[in-house]
Write a structure and sequence with these properties.
The chain is an alpha/beta fold and 281 residues long. The protein contains 11 helices and 10 strands. A hairpin with a 2-residue loop joins strand 9 and strand 10. Helix 2 crosses helix 5 and helix 6 packs across helix 7. This is protein-glutamate O-methyltransferase.
Length: 281
């Protein structure tokens, strides 16, 4: 059946789906999000040629659906807002204070940075620009940046590293000229991140709630910004503790401007607003 009109999500089906999303992804959808979920899943029902949300629910809860549809559903329900140089005070701190304090230590082995919830890659490539620029003006630092996200759609964009000209507006002109390559197609107003930066990064799919972190290395710096705001307090604490298992003692952790660890039992101490350091035991 091909959809010719907007289908409606009943309260019962919303409750089933929201509970499933919370269990698998950690995102808490309150009842006011029902219209949003209904709208975002319309495309999946159309692609699957399903005539009702009940049919979709029955499918997603089946063994076949859990294996084949879960990734597609997550792509639709996750929010992927990001920008280059978003919350610039973090990058200023990184460049002016954090890197000068540790550069002697990292002359002999790579500085490892994790962008956890990297979306379409803007944060990862911003970090790569900042670290590359620091290495140009100070003692060179070898570094590697690992970006992870739960959405396969945005990860593909991150790997491709192609962005429209309006997306690169926050990047300083000198950095644009140095690290971005304009499309040779004059009708295609896009740029691609230069190979010198792309060679320093890696992207992988990761679900904070389900996947094993043991395959990841230990990181010196973790950026997890504007991600845990979609979780309830208990899930936030759980996720932060899992992330901290991959942060070396004394390593640095960056949260988004609206996020906090207040009243949480996590091994982090605040050194600046939304900037933390892992407590050494």
């Amino acid at each position: 059946m091909i959809l010719t009109h907007t289908l409606k999500l009943t309260n019962a089906d919303f409750n089933r789906l929201s509970a499933f999303i919370y269990e698998r992804v950690g995102i808490k959808l309150s009842p006011i999000k029902k219209t949003m979920l209904e709208s975002r899943l319309q495309k999946r029902l159309s692609t699957l040629q399903m005539g009702s949300f009940k049919e979709y629910c029955d499918y997603i809860f089946s063994d076949q659906g859990k294996q084949q549809e879960l990734v597609h559903m997550i792509d639709q329900v996750t929010t992927n807002k990001t920008d280059f140089f978003r919350e610039p005070n973090h990058f200023s701190f990184l460049q002016s204070q954090l890197l000068p304090s540790i550069d002697k230590h990292y002359r002999t082995y790579p500085l490892r940075v994790w962008s956890a919830g990297c979306s379409s890659g803007e944060e990862v490539y911003t970090l790569a620009m900042v670290l590359s620029e620091y290495s140009c003006t100070h003692t060179p630092i070898s570094f590697h940046i690992h970006g992870t996200d739960i959405s396969t759609q945005v990860l593909q964009k991150a790997v491709t590293a192609v962005y429209t000209e309006d997306k690169i507006a926050p990047i300083p002109l000198l950095l644009r000229q140095k690290y971005l390559l304009k499309s040779k197609d004059t009708t295609n107003r896009t740029v691609r991140v230069a190979p010198s930066l792309r060679s320093k990064v890696q992207f992988d799919r990761l679900n904070f709630m389900e996947d094993d972190f043991n395959s990841l290395p230990v990181f010196d710096i973790i950026f997890c910004r504007n991600v845990i705001i979609y979780f309830d307090k208990a899930t936030q604490e759980q996720v932060l503790n899992r992330l901290c298992t991959q942060l070396r003692p004394g390593g640095f952790f960056f949260l988004g401007h609206s996020e906090s660890i207040t009243n949480m039992d996590v091994p982090l101490k605040q050194i600046r607003p939304t900037i933390f350091q892992k407590v050494t035991v």
